[in-house]
Specification:
The structure holds two protein chains of two kinds.
Chain A lengths: L5 E2 H11 L4 E4 L6 H7 L5 E4 L3 H15 L3 E5 L3 H4 L2 H9 L4 E7 L15 H5 L5 E4 L6 H13 L5 E7 H5 L1 E2 L20 H13 L3 E5 L1 H6 L2 H11 L3 E3 L14 E4 L6 H9 L2 E5 L19 E6 L13 E4 L2 H11 L6 H13 L12 H11 L5 E4 L3 H9 L8 E2 L10 H11 L5 E6 H4 L6 H6 L4 E7 L4 H10 L15 H7 L4 E4 L5 H10 L4 E6 L26
Parallel strand pairs in A: 2-3, 2-4, 4-5, 5-7, 6-7, 9-10, 9-12, 10-11, 12-13, 13-14, 15-16, 15-17, 17-18, 18-20, 19-20
Antiparallel strand pairs in A: 1-8
Helix pairs in contact in A: 1-2, 1-7, 3-5, 3-17, 11-13, 12-14, 15-16, 15-22
Chain B lengths: L1 E9 L4 H11 L3 E9 L5 E9 L2 H13 L3 E7 L4 E12 L5 H11 L2 E5 L3 E8 L1 H10 L5 E6 L3 E4 L1 H10 L1
Antiparallel strand pairs in B: 1-3, 1-4, 2-3, 5-7, 5-8, 5-9, 6-7
Classes of the chains: A alpha/beta, B alpha+beta.
Chain lengths: ~550, ~170
């Protein structure tokens, strides 16, 4: 780093380079012109989205597939507030992100100036931490601290609001000091007693089940988890965020747990006498009724965030720490025989409650996803919007690697999948990226078609088009006496024509016979493609446990 | 159930928003909140009285500890800490009744700060029970203004020492 004086904007870009940032997703505006002026010839690549929300989701998608900090940039006022949904989405799913926003000049703050908004105040509850940098001399240390906070401990988004006059002020760079945050603890010591307590519980368990999620991804502990399962032969179910941490095509994988999880995962958990939960939070979509969750089981809960332990249900063995190091310690010591009778029982449960759908020649969404899963051998990056198609993708796309299933789990943000795919393909250009979208969700960020065309990003957009806001329609069918209040999209654009307008090739698929050909063609075309699947309109996501239900309270198809 | 939480935070303009925001976001109930600098000007102590069931109170502590600005969180038991609150009370008092108010004030160690034609302003310090008692004793007078600082508290070191020797 040079010691020559530089402007705040130069300092911002230099700091990003120092943090290893290669890509910024952003949208210019009045209060960030100095930053964009530096970006003009900086060695950082900037992806221009068509809406700040798209930039935030793209940075989030980039972070999820690479494990690195995603960066987005927006101007003050509406530019900053357009990031809000993206920040909230990243916050709920613990995604490391740094959002930089321009702000009106320090002297104008609080005067209801043009394009002023209190993004610092607005973003407090939806970020891990945030800053308003009023003193140019704080800029360098602040950016460094922001990246540190975003990527350590339980990761999360950090926002830095930078007034325009701070961007233009002259600053003397200082030698970088280590980040000092007296109350911020990222490393927690796990005692050998705690490890022994887990091992002891394992020795006594007859019917153990692992329930693992996004924490395993954040910790990079998938290899250690796989070794643990290889050694112990314990079946595993995951949360939505944990898809791919263990190969879903393996016999010990039970797929996803919860409201729209597999029946066999839910039944296995119900029968289990020991749940080893790792990096999960017993969310209400997993454990709808905590009183009836795994009633026979002792519960081990391992997480890096102490506040997650005991948040929704009481646990027997709480362990706070980093999963990679804990699993490494467990792997060193664990030595239990496989519970063959339990494995037989699990196999039986799997046989008894298979994952099925009607295969009567109609264009079924499950069929498309199963076919895509087979054709890509579970190795593509899948991003999703939110709704029925998301749950079908979770059930029928079998992931075999972590960081390949990119979805808004906690926040449930419609419109997330397509812009997230932009970030994903930028982060992992060698992998096929398929955005699974609903016809409703896709229209929430449809403007990013221009972005994928402009950069010729090879995002394959698969629209699951049923002319409904399908998940809400399903709830209305089941719980509101089929009163489809405003969930019918009586007008939809012709998505193929829309794609054509953006100079993007498009394929319309209306029958199951066309599926394989269309997927092949889409994957083969260099650059973006849109495939408009006209799926069976009133197909429901099954299995389903009603909200607040126990793990075995399934609604039967046709019952509602 | 109630508990007193004493937290040390980094002293900067946004810190109160972060702490207060946590209570709003997670729907915790604040009974009182008081903040002020400590011996170190870079550190502020915030004393919060929070109500809820045992489960919520446990979560409050953990969530506070998660805030980046929070350096330390201490749960204070009423039995092992000294708590004080300061109250300023202005009541409507006729000239005739002044002596009665002064007598009540003396009984409780309250200080008369101001006397106007129609009002008197008193200051008193104490724990919550004492303050409630004084306000009760003066209830025949109509209140013009009442301002309370909220509780501040520190652990009773002697009490903790005693318990330690018993163990």
């Amino acid at each position: 780093m040079t010691t020559k004086k530089m402007t705040g904007a130069q300092m911002i870009i230099q700091s990003l380079i120092d943090e290893g940032v290669e890509y910024i997703f952003g949208f210019p505006g009045g209060a960030v012109i100095p930053i964009y002026d530096v970006l003009y010839d900086a060695p950082i690549k900037h992806i221009l989205t068509r809406h700040e929300q798209g930039a935030a989701h793209a940075a989030d998608g980039y972070a999820r597939v690479t494990g690195r900090v995603g960066v987005c940039l927006a101007t003050s006022g509406p530019g900053a507030t357009n990031l809000v949904t993206g920040l909230a989405t990243a916050h709920m799913d613990s995604v490391p992100m740094v959002a930089i926003t321009g702000q009106v000049a320090v002297s104008s703050i609080g005067n209801d100036s043009f394009q002023e908004s209190d993004i610092y105040g607005i973003s407090i509850p939806i970020t891990k931490y945030n800053y308003l940098v009023k003193n140019p001399d704080d800029l360098q240390a602040t950016i460094r601290e922001a990246f540190h906070i975003a990527r350590t401990g339980r990761p999360g988004p950090v926002l830095i609001d930078i007034p325009k006059d701070v961007q233009t002020a002259w600053i003397a760079p200082k030698p970088l000091k280590p980040v000092e945050l007296p109350g911020y603890c990222t490393r927690r010591k796990v005692t050998s007693e705690q490890i022994d307590a887990i091992l002891d519980a394992l020795r006594h368990a007859r019917r153990p089940v692992i329930y693992a999620g996004g924490g395993v991804v954040c910790s990079g502990a998938s290899p250690q988890l796989r070794e643990f399962i290889k050694k112990t032969r314990i079946p595993i179910t995951t949360s939505l965020m944990g898809k791919g941490i263990y190969p879903e095509n393996d016999a010990l994988s039970l797929g996803m747990l919860g409201m729209h999880g597999t029946k066999y995962a839910n039944h296995a958990v119900h029968e289990s006498d020991l749940i080893i939960s790792m990096g999960v939070r017993f969310d209400d979509r997993v454990a709808g009724n905590v009183q009836r969750f795994a009633p026979l089981a002792k519960i081990v809960h391992i997480d890096i965030d102490p506040a997650e332990i005991g948040k929704r249900l009481a646990v027997d063995i709480p362990v706070v720490g980093d999963l990679k190091s804990i699993l490494t310690k467990l792997n060193r010591k664990v030595n239990i025989p496989a519970r063959q009778d339990w494995l037989d029982q699990v196999a039986e449960i799997k046989m008894k409650y298979p994952l099925t759908f009607k295969e009567d020649g109609k264009l079924m969404p499950q069929f498309i996803l199963r076919t895509l899963s087979e054709m890509t051998r579970g190795k593509a990056i899948i991003t999703t919007d939110v709704g029925q198609h998301q749950m079908w993708a979770a059930l029928y796309y079998q992931c075999i690697e972590p960081r390949r299933f990119v979805t808004s789990g906690g926040s449930g943000t419609m419109g997330y999948g397509f812009p997230a795919a932009i970030g994903a393909t930028v982060g992992c250009p060698k992998l096929p990226v398929v955005a699974i979208c609903g016809d409703g969700s896709f229209q929430m960020c449809i403007q990013e078609l221009a972005t994928v065309r402009m950069y010729r990003l090879p995002v394959k957009i698969f629209i699951f088009n049923n002319g409904y806001l399908g998940m809400v329609r399903q709830w209305q069918q089941m719980f509101y006496n089929r009163r489809y209040s405003y969930t019918t999209l009586e007008f939809n654009p012709d998505f193929c024509q829309v794609a054509k307008g953006y100079d993007i090739p498009a394929i319309r698929v209306t029958s199951s016979e066309e599926v394989v050909g269309a997927i092949n063609q889409a994957l083969k075309i260099d650059g973006p493609v849109l495939v408009d699947f006209h799926i069976e309109r009133e197909e429901n996501v099954m299995p389903m446990i009603p909200p607040g239900g126990g793990q075995t309270d399934f609604i039967l198809e046709g019952e509602a | 159930m109630q508990k007193i939480i004493s937290i040390l935070v980094r002293n900067h303009p946004g810190v109160l928003s972060h702490v207060a925001g946590l209570f709003t976001r997670r729907a915790y109930n604040i009974e009182s909140i008081a903040a002020g600098e400590t011996e170190n000007p870079e550190v502020t102590r915030i004393t919060i009285v929070v109500s809820g069931d045992e489960f919520i109170l446990d979560q409050v502590t953990k969530q506070l500890e998660k805030l980046i600005d929070v350096i330390q969180v201490q749960d204070l038991k009423y039995s092992e800490s000294v708590t004080r609150e300061l109250v300023l009370l202005t009541i409507f008092v006729s000239v005739k009744q002044r002596q009665k108010v002064i007598a009540t004030a003396n009984t409780f160690g309250a200080v008369v700060l101001d006397i106007s034609e129609k009002t008197m302003t008193l200051e008193f310090v104490g724990n919550r029970r004492k303050i409630d008692t004084i306000i009760h004793a003066l209830q025949e007078f109509r209140i013009k203004a009442l301002a309370r600082t909220g509780i501040v508290a520190v652990p009773l070191e002697s009490q903790i020492e005693k318990e330690r020797t018993l163990l």
